[in-house]
């Protein structure tokens, strides 16, 4: 009986850990997407400046 309770506790803790890692990965992905948008905007500005020069 005690072994079954321990197994259930370990499984619950494992899923909580996975949820925490997934939410952290999701946060990092959102940051990366924001940075990507900023770089895209800066490239557009650079392209416009280069076209103006040429």
UniProtKB/TrEMBL annotation:
PROSITE patterns: PROKAR_LIPOPROTEIN (PS51257)
Protein name, entry field: Lipoprotein
The organism of origin for this protein: Sebaldella termitidis (strain ATCC 33386 / NCTC 11300)
